[in-house]
Amino acid sequence: MLIKQTVxxxxxxxxxxxxxxxxxxxPVEFARQALENGRxxxxxxxxxxxxxxxxxxxxxxxxxxxxxxxxxxRIYGExxxxxxxxxxxxxxxxxxSYCAFRHANTELARVALTxxxxxxEIRVLLRHGHKRVLVVAxxxxxxxxxxxxxxxxxxxxxxxxxxxxxxxxxxxxxxLSLEHFKRLHATGxxxxxxxxxxxxxxxxxxxxxxxxxxxxxxxxxxxDRAIEAGIDDVGTGVLxxxxxxxxxxxxxxGHARYLETKFGVGPHTMSVPRLEPAQNxxxxxxxxxxxxxxxxxxxxxxxxxxxxxxxMILSTRESAEMRDELFALGISQASAGSRTDVGAYAxxxxxxxxxxxxTTAAGQFELQDHRQLxxxxxxxxxxEAIPSFCTACYRSGRTGDRFMELAKSGKIxxxxxxxxxxxxxxxxxxxxxxxxxxxxxxAIQRGLAELPENLRKLTEKMIARxxxxxxxxxx
Length: 475
Ligand code: SAM
Ligand code: SF4
Known about the structure:
By secondary structure, the chain is an alpha/beta fold. The protein contains 20 helices and 9 strands. The chain folds into 3 domains: 61 residues, no CATH class; 292 residues, Aldolase class I (TIM Barrel, Alpha-Beta Barrel), CATH 3.20.20; 69 residues.
């Protein structure tokens, strides 16, 4: 297993700052060589990433975007995997100063969905064509502890809507103890996601003044416990806008290298949320570290080069225009048709909250991309991308290091592409209008043409099975 760099502990703030300072002092030649190494899909060392973060040479900056684009195409093809977040509870014992769910926000209407309400949400998502959800909850030992999560996930998997079921439920919840992670694993989840928010400890303390989340180490070591509990796929992230993004991406890469050194495999995914306005949160509107669109593009491109085989997830916090650009630079998974107000899908005739109106919303923060799944699918097909609803890997045991080995050998493309095309065919037949269906069939032909002959034949057979009425066809 190729590990680009050994990091045997969670980096301290001084170490991250030291790496940043060293990068700033590196000659242009070092940055050029780093980019060349990155182009080989070998990932970047912390020093290489730091040199590229600081480099302003126009040729190298252009090269960063070109390389990210090249790697995205080479490793992920034109595929984008879609999912829907499912907010189950906004009760929270924490006081994260950027989030509307925080305990001190007394104006928020608190909701924790019952199992029947969850099933109702899932029925709506299934009718839209979703196969993959991300269960999201505030942290409240009474309202969203492990018993509640177990019931939620069982409810998600229990629904069968005209033959359609959720095939992968990922979870974004607070860090759990080892025992509770074992129970979470037993529910059959895919990825456990937990964002560190910021790797800068003084900022972390400041924005998490009280509640269990105020303990930095409990959070940063949550993946160690999750992996020990048997959860192979973990998803990391930073909330960009809380502190200097340069510091944060060195922290992110340091954490990924630490997990690789300790467990032989790094994070399965990285999420890149950017701070959005949230009800009664001054910080969410006036943070001194807001990330500009230009810097955000650079963040995505640099991360794509630094960890080429880690899936990158973008949410509807970003506008439609921005999201379309970022897909080309390395994003491989996207949420679609999202709502962060608990219970909103079942009330989908209710309009999304007005942009900028933070007074009435029960949502966590403001969303920028309000397109429904069918609009996104169509828009992606027009942009020659391949929307994928694949959920095969974790059901075929391709998780953790087994997934990474396949990814790094380049063989994963031979599995993802057939699965993406078969799952797209299923979506087209069951949910798409005529125009989307025609666009989708063209995309399938393009996708087939990219495959070597033996795989093309295999994929054609998979698609024929879908056409004949079989569902959930994958390898
Ligand atoms: N409560 C759990 C936690 O904090 O880990 C999990 C769910 S929390 C609802 C999911 C993520 O939303 C947080 O990790 C944070 O990064 C993000 N978030 C919170 N407030 C936000 C805001 N104002 N803008 C964008 N993202 C935000
Ligand atoms: Fe609670 Fe998570 Fe929001 Fe913090 S980010 S207030 S922990 S829901």
